Automatic annotation (TrEMBL), chain A:
<dbReference type="InterPro" id="IPR003593">
    <property type="entry name" value="AAA+_ATPase"/>
</dbReference>
<keyword id="KW-0813">Transport</keyword>
<dbReference type="InterPro" id="IPR003439">
    <property type="entry name" value="ABC_transporter-like_ATP-bd"/>
</dbReference>
<feature type="domain" description="ABC transporter">
    <location>
        <begin position="12"/>
        <end position="246"/>
    </location>
</feature>
<dbReference type="InterPro" id="IPR050166">
    <property type="entry name" value="ABC_transporter_ATP-bind"/>
</dbReference>
<keyword id="KW-0067">ATP-binding</keyword>
<dbReference type="Pfam" id="PF00005">
    <property type="entry name" value="ABC_tran"/>
</dbReference>
<dbReference type="GO" id="GO:0005524">
    <property type="term" value="F:ATP binding"/>
</dbReference>
<dbReference type="GO" id="GO:0016887">
    <property type="term" value="F:ATP hydrolysis activity"/>
</dbReference>
TrEMBL record, chain B:
<dbReference type="InterPro" id="IPR000515">
    <property type="entry name" value="MetI-like"/>
</dbReference>
<feature type="transmembrane region" description="Helical">
    <location>
        <begin position="184"/>
        <end position="207"/>
    </location>
</feature>
<keyword id="KW-1003">Cell membrane</keyword>
<keyword id="KW-0812">Transmembrane</keyword>
<dbReference type="InterPro" id="IPR035906">
    <property type="entry name" value="MetI-like_sf"/>
</dbReference>
<feature type="transmembrane region" description="Helical">
    <location>
        <begin position="59"/>
        <end position="81"/>
    </location>
</feature>
<feature type="transmembrane region" description="Helical">
    <location>
        <begin position="121"/>
        <end position="140"/>
    </location>
</feature>
<feature type="domain" description="ABC transmembrane type-1">
    <location>
        <begin position="55"/>
        <end position="235"/>
    </location>
</feature>
<dbReference type="GO" id="GO:0055085">
    <property type="term" value="P:transmembrane transport"/>
</dbReference>
Length: 264, 251
C-alpha cells in the first residue's frame, strides 16, 4: 500500500473542566494510514474525534504531539502548503450567501491558488454540470434546495481537482432520498476519473459506510482507537440494497457491538 | 400626518412663549425670526461672506473625517474582531477616547497643530473612529465559526479574506456604523470648528453667539438637523433595509 496520508503517533486532548484531570483525551498514540486513490470511510460514534481527525489532516488543528503528519512522504508541519492539495466538504454547505454557487466555487479556487486562472471558468462549468447543476450555478444559495447547496459545496471542493478530498458527514443533514441521490452523484464523479482521488469520508452511518467505502476504518468512542480496518472490494455502482452491501453492513454492526462496545 | 402633530404643537408653544412670556427676540427668537434667518442662509447671504461656502467647508470636513474614520475604524475593528487579544488591548483606550468630551480633544489637537484645518478634521476622526471600531469588532465576532473554518481550509487570506469574506459578512453592521457615525459627526462637527478657522458653519455660529443673536444659531441647528435626517432617511435607511432583507432572504 502507498500511503497518501500517514498519521504517526498522534496525541491530542482538549481542556475539559468537567473532568478530574481537566482534560479530555481524544487521541493517544494514534496512527493511521490512508491509501492513495482509496475511498476511505472513517466510521465512529458522535464525539469520537472524526472531525478532529480531518482537521489534523488539513492542518487546521495541531495535535499536542505527533511523530508525523505525513502527506505524500512530506510532513505537513514543515510544508503547510501541502494542504493546498486538499479540499474540504463540511456537514453543512457553508456557502457564502452573497455569492452565487459559481462564485462560491471560485472563492475556493482563488483561496487555494489554483493555476492557471484562465482554467477556472471551464473547471467550474465542468463540475457543476457533472453534479447536475449546470444551469443553477448562477443562482444564490437561498434560491436552491438544501441538496443543491450541498452539491455546490462538493463542487467547490472538486473544482480544485484536489488530490485529497476531506468530507465530514456531508449528507447527514439531508433527507434519506436526497442523501441516496447525493451518494450516487459522488461515487459517479469519483469513479468517472481515470486517476481516482483519495477521499477521506467521515460518517456515523453504518449503511452509508458499507455503500461508499473501499476502505473502512472503525473508531471507538474517545479516547479513540481503530477497532476495525477492512477493505470493501465491491464494484461500482453499488446498490444500497444489494446483498453484498448489506452483508458488509451486518458485519460492521457486529464489529461495533463486539469491539467498540456499542450495540444496535 | 400624526408624526407632524407634535412638531406643530411644539412650534405653537415656541411661538406663544417667545411672543407673550420671554419677549426678548435677540435671545429668545420667535419662529418667524428663525424662519427669516433660514431663508437668509438659503439665499447664500451672511455676515462672513456667502453661507454656501461656509456650509460647503463644514460638509467637506465632515465627509473627509467621516470617510477616514470609517475606513480606519472598520480595518481596526476587523483586526480586533478576529483576535481577542487585539480587542482587549484596544477596547479600553477606545472607550476612554470616546468618553473624553469632544471640546477637550479639539484643544489638545489645537495645542499640537495650531489653528489648522487638520484640527477639526482629526478631532472628528478620533471621535468617529471609535463607534465604527466597536461596531465592526462586534460584527466580526458574530461571524459563524463554521464559515471561518471554511475560509481557513481553503487558505483564504489577506485581501480576499477582507473583501470577499469579512466585509460582506458584516455589511449590515457597516451600514449601521456609517449611520451612527454620520449622525454623531453632524452633531459634533460645529464643536470641532469653533476654534478660529477662516470658514465653516462653526465660525458663523461663534460669530452670532458673540454678538448675542440666537435666531441664526437656531436656524443653523434646524438646517443641520434637517440635513442629518435627510441623509439618514434617504441614504442609510433604504440601504440598511435592503441589506437586512437580503440577509433575511438567505437565512
Ligand atoms: N475546540 C475544541 N475544544 C474542546 N473540545 C473539543 C473541541 N473540538 C472538539 N472537541 C471535543 O472533542 C471530541 C471530538 O470532537 P469531534 O472531532 O467533533 O467529534 P466527531 O466529529 O467524531 O463527532 C468531542 O467530545 C468534542 O466535544
Ligand atoms: Mg463531527
Amino acid at each position: 500500500m502507498i500511503p497518501k496520508v500517514s498519521l504517526d503517533n498522534i496525541d491530542l486532548s482538549f481542556p475539559d473542566a468537567s473532568r478530574p484531570d481537566g482534560r479530555k483525551v481524544i487521541y493517544e498514540d494514534f496512527s493511521l494510514q490512508i491509501e492513495k486513490g482509496s475511498f476511505t470511510v472513517l466510521l465512529g460514534p458522535s464525539g469520537c474525534g472524526k472531525s478532529t481527525l480531518l482537521n489534523i489532516i488539513n492542518g487546521l488543528l495541531k495535535p499536542n504531539t505527533a511523530r508525523g503528519i505525513v502527506i505524500d512522504g512530506t510532513d505537513l508541519r514543515s510544508e503547510p502548503d501541502l494542504s493546498r492539495q486538499m479540499a474540504y466538504v463540511f456537514q453543512g454547505p457553508r456557502l457564502l450567501r452573497w455569492k452565487t454557487l459559481a462564485e462560491n466555487a471560485e472563492f475556493g479556487l482563488r483561496g487555494l491558488g489554483v493555476q492557471p486562472r484562465e482554467k477556472w471558468r471551464d473547471l467550474i462549468d465542468k463540475y457543476f454540470r457533472a453534479v447536475g447543476l449546470g444551469d443553477a450555478q448562477h443562482l444564490y444559495p437561498h434560491q436552491v434546495s438544501g441538496g443543491m447547496r450541498q452539491r455546490a459545496s462538493i463542487v467547490r471542493a472538486w473544482v480544485n481537482e484536489p488530490q485529497i478530498l476531506l468530507m465530514d458527514e456531508p449528507f447527514s443533514h439531508l433527507d434519506e432520498i436526497t442523501a441516496a441521490e447525493m451518494r450516487r452523484i459522488l461515487t459517479n464523479l469519483w469513479t468517472s476519473e481515470e486517476e481516482r482521488r483519495t477521499i477521506v469520508f467521515v460518517t456515523h452511518d453504518i449503511s452509508e459506510a458499507a455503500q461508499l467505502a473501499t476502505d473502512i476504518i472503525m473508531l471507538t468512542p474517545a479516547p479513540s482507537k481503530i477497532c476495525l480496518r477492512r477493505k470493501v472490494d465491491l464494484p461500482w455502482p453499488r446498490r444500497m440494497d444489494s446483498d453484498e452491501v448489506i452483508a458488509v453492513e451486518k458485519e460492521l454492526r457486529h464489529a461495533f457491538a463486539e469491539r467498540a462496545g456499542i450495540g444496535f | 400626518m400624526l408624526n407632524a402633530a407634535p412638531v406643530v404643537v411644539g412650534i405653537g408653544l415656541w411661538w406663544t412663549i417667545t411672543t407673550f412670556v420671554l419677549v426678548q427676540p435677540r435671545l429668545f427668537p420667535p419662529p418667524q425670526d428663525v424662519l427669516a434667518e433660514l431663508l437668509r442662509i438659503l439665499s447664500n447671504d451672511g455676515p462672513l461672506g456667502p453661507t454656501y461656502a461656509h456650509a460647503g467647508a463644514t460638509l467637506l470636513r465632515l465627509l473627509t473625517a467621516w470617510s477616514i474614520a470609517f475606513v480606519i475604524g472598520t480595518l481596526l475593528g476587523v483586526l480586533a474582531g478576529r483576535r481577542r487579544l487585539v480587542f482587549d488591548f484596544m477596547a479600553n483606550p477606545v472607550w476612554i477616547a470616546m468618553s473624553v468630551p469632544s471640546v477637550v480633544w479639539v484643544f489638545i489637537l489645537l495645542v499640537l497643530f495650531g489653528i489648522e484645518n487638520i484640527v477639526p478634521v482629526s478631532a472628528l476622526v478620533l471621535l468617529l473612529t471609535a463607534p465604527v471600531f466597536l461596531g465592526t469588532a462586534e460584527g466580526v465576532r458574530a461571524i459563524s465559526k463554521d464559515l471561518l473554518e471554511m475560509c481557513d481550509s481553503y487558505h483564504v487570506r489577506g485581501w480576499q479574506r477582507l473583501t470577499g469574506f469579512y466585509l460582506p459578512s458584516i455589511a449590515s453592521y457597516m451600514v449601521a456604523n456609517a449611520r451612527v457615525s454620520f449622525a454623531y459627526g453632524i452633531r459634533i462637527v460645529l464643536i470641532a470648528e469653533v476654534i478660529g478657522l477662516p470658514n465653516g458653519v462653526g465660525i458663523l455660529v461663534a460669530y452670532w453667539s458673540d454678538t448675542l443673536f440666537m435666531a441664526p444659531i437656531v436656524a443653523w441647528g434646524i438646517l443641520l438637523t434637517a440635513v442629518g435626517m435627510a441623509v439618514d432617511l434617504l441614504v442609510f435607511g433604504p440601504l440598511q433595509r435592503r441589506i437586512r432583507q437580503e440577509s433575511e432572504l438567505s437565512r
